[in-house]
Design goal:
This protein is α+β, with helices and mostly antiparallel strands. It has one domain. It contains two helices and nine strands, in the order ααβββββββββ. Strands 1, 3, 4, 5 and 7 form a five-stranded antiparallel beta sheet that branches.
């Protein structure tokens, strides 16, 4: 029983500390050159995932970097709720030869946002798509096509 109370207190304190932190994600993205951004999606049902794919549609190599940010509700005013980032993961850059692709599959009990960042010369030639997929059947529930990288 004491252990359960201690874990509950630790969880509440973590959430409080995260809500007090100042996240300036917009400024970070501008300096790193975000090319495609899904915006905040979800939370998705437990049987659905968000898959983001970048394909090199140019004749030169393209470097892309995937980024995932998770959000949770902070405060609500009626039906409108403020969402705050609680975790962020930036993956290593991937260099794609012409006609190669790379994808990331995101699943979360929280609202999630996926970003494909410009990694250098030619990255604007990455063709980016985003899909919401039923994980158990593979059925595509929603699809967004973003030629030139913009979602």
């Amino acid at each position: 029983m004491k252990r359960r109370i201690s874990l509950s207190i630790a969880l509440v304190m973590s959430i409080v500390l995260l809500s007090l932190m100042n996240f300036d994600l917009k400024a970070q993205e501008q300096t790193q050159g975000a090319d495609a951004d899904t915006g905040i999606i979800g939370p998705l049902p437990s049987d659905q995932v968000l898959r983001i794919t970048a394909t090199n549609s140019s004749r030169q190599t393209v470097t892309v970097r995937f980024k995932q940010i998770e959000y949770m509700p902070d405060s609500c005013n009626g039906a409108v709720c403020k969402l705050v980032p609680v975790s962020q993961m930036t993956y290593n850059p991937i260099t794609l030869a012409p006609n190669e692709g790379a994808s990331i599959t995101l699943s979360s009990v929280l609202a999630v946002r996926g970003i494909v960042q410009n990694g250098g010369q030619g990255a604007r030639n990455a063709h980016v798509t985003a899909q919401i997929i039923k994980a158990n059947t593979g059925e595509v529930v929603a699809f967004v096509d973003a030629p030139g990288g913009q979602l």
